[in-house]
Amino acid sequence: MKRVKVSNNVIRRLPRYLRKLDELTEAGISRISSFELGHQLGFTPSQIRQDFSCFGEFGQQGYGYNVPALRAEIASILGMDRGFQAIMIGVGNIGRALTENFNFKEWGFRLIAAFDVRPEIIGTMFHEVPILSMDMLAQFLRENRVDAAVLTVPKEAAVPVTEMLTANGVEAIWNFTNVELTEPNSSTLVENIHFSDSLLSLSYFIAERSDERAAKAARSEKN
Amino acid sequence: MKRVKVSNNVIRRLPRYLRKLDELTEAGISRISSFELGHQLGFTPSQIRQDFSCFGEFGQQGYGYNVPALRAEIASILGMDRGFQAIMIGVGNIGRALTENFNFKEWGFRLIAAFDVRPEIIGTMFHEVPILSMDMLAQFLRENRVDAAVLTVPKEAAVPVTEMLTANGVEAIWNFTNVELTEPNSSTLVENIHFSDSLLSLSYFIAERSDERAAKAARSEKN
Question: Which terminus of chain A faces fewer neighbouring Cβ atoms within 10 Å, N or C?
Answer without folding.
Answer: C
